[in-house]
Amino acid sequence: MPTVSCRSLWAGEGPCLSHVSVHTDDSGTISSIEKCSSDTFDYSFAMPSFVDAHVHYTWMISKEASLDLSELRSSDEFLSLVQSAAVCGKHKIVRGESFDESDWINTELPTLAELDSVTGDVPVFLRRVCGHAALVNSAMLRLLNPDTPDVNRATGVLKEWPALNFEKMFPLPDRVLLEAASRVESTILSRGVTAIYTFESAQSAELALNSSPGLDVSTAVVTDDVDELVSSGLPAKTVKLFLDGSLGAGNAALSHPYPDGSTGELHYSNDRLLALLLRCGEAGLSVAVHAIGGKALQQLDLVSNEVFRVLGRGFAVRVEHAEDLMCAWPGTWNPGYHIFSMQPNFVERWQRPGGMYDRILPAGQSLLLNPFRTVLDSGFKLGFGSDCMPLDPLYGLKGAIRHRNSSESLSTEEALSAYTLGAASISGLNHLAIPLGRGRTADMVFLSGNPFGGLDGVTVEATMKNGGIVFQNVSTEGI
Fold this sequence. Notes:
Elements: E1 3-9, E2 17-24, E3 30-35, E4 43-48, E5 50-55, H1 57-64, E6 67-68, H2 75-87, E7 94-99, H3 112-119, E8 124-128, E9 133-136, H4 138-143, E10 151-152, E11 157-159, H5 161-164, H6 166-169, H7 174-190, E12 193-200, H8 202-210, E13 216-222, H9 226-232, E14 238-242, H10 270-282, E15 286-291, H11 294-311, E16 317-321, E17 338-342, H12 344-350, H13 356-360, H14 372-377, E18 382-384, H15 393-401, H16 412-418, H17 421-426, E19 444-447, E20 460-465, E21 468-472
Parallel strand pairs: 1-4, 5-12, 6-7, 7-8, 12-13, 13-14, 14-15, 15-16, 16-17, 17-18
Antiparallel strand pairs: 1-2, 2-3, 4-19, 8-9, 9-11, 10-11, 19-20, 20-21
């Protein structure tokens, strides 16, 4: 019977316990948590493992098999790395992922002519960190169907459908995907995450469910063909819809204008959204809805409540991101049916003074984004996820605890709960939505320090899945 001793343990609720041993049994559950008299511990701090309530697992696999553009800090670095990949001759298509020009010294993207000059006739596809925009060269433009929507052939910029669905048009070989999947799973476990809620196309959902034996995976299918999902035989029971784009891509549907006067566009009319949500409700499906801008959130509030009225009952509607929620608040949101899946790492990454939000939104507007406290205090279920930007709960938790707008900050316990039990609860992972205790699945994360004393310098030392250590950072004997 495996046993680990910890200097401190937080079970998922209540105060931390000191000097405890956690005993697990052969079924992968906790058999007991007892007081430990030893002064030597296996780990410093233990808690329920993290659950990431918003990832794109097969996109992570694709990124693993592509150029990593996330650490670049200028257009020149961007062009140099892409040129090196193009001239090496190893790729039919050079794929790059996760560039974020908002972090660059100069935030202007390379022109199509500049990209062509360093890539020649080698097609390149370079996707922004948000996934809603990408940059391609002329060779890639020639491979795209002339009828492909949202392609700017003068600039090489793709938005929405072609950026989000590139793998449908140009799939990677299965061998490459499976090799990358193993590395992605290891990375996720190293972050203290043992369960994920992923958004997949009908084609990629099976890969996501079958290629990650070391993780618990819950899936929503991105489709507006509800009947296709019903007849597919997939275990997924949630439909994912996109109402707008992203702030970084400049196409989230805002109720106030961007500095250039644009406001972004809604992807559906009210009537079309009403029909989709009604069909989901009739089919017994729940819905996860990407809605970032105030205009999109206002539409979701209005239409979903009309659907509940027509059906004569409500059903679960997960609101994904809800960054600009205060522009649609208080509205008629219903804690019995509306559930919020939000991303605190957006705060840490983009909501700091002078960050991306400040640069692309009207003065003062960025302070109102990501209102975690408002959601929680209003009685709504709240779960945290990363959207893979980056997949790192310890990074994201800082954004929740030290929100730029202090009135929207969460306590350490509230933030940890949203990234563990709360995320599991909204994701249908009910076995992980209860505190640590006898009979509970032994999924735990062991940290180098107590997060209740601050997160700076705290790292993941080990991850336990079903009672077994599946990631070990360094030897922690003798803590």
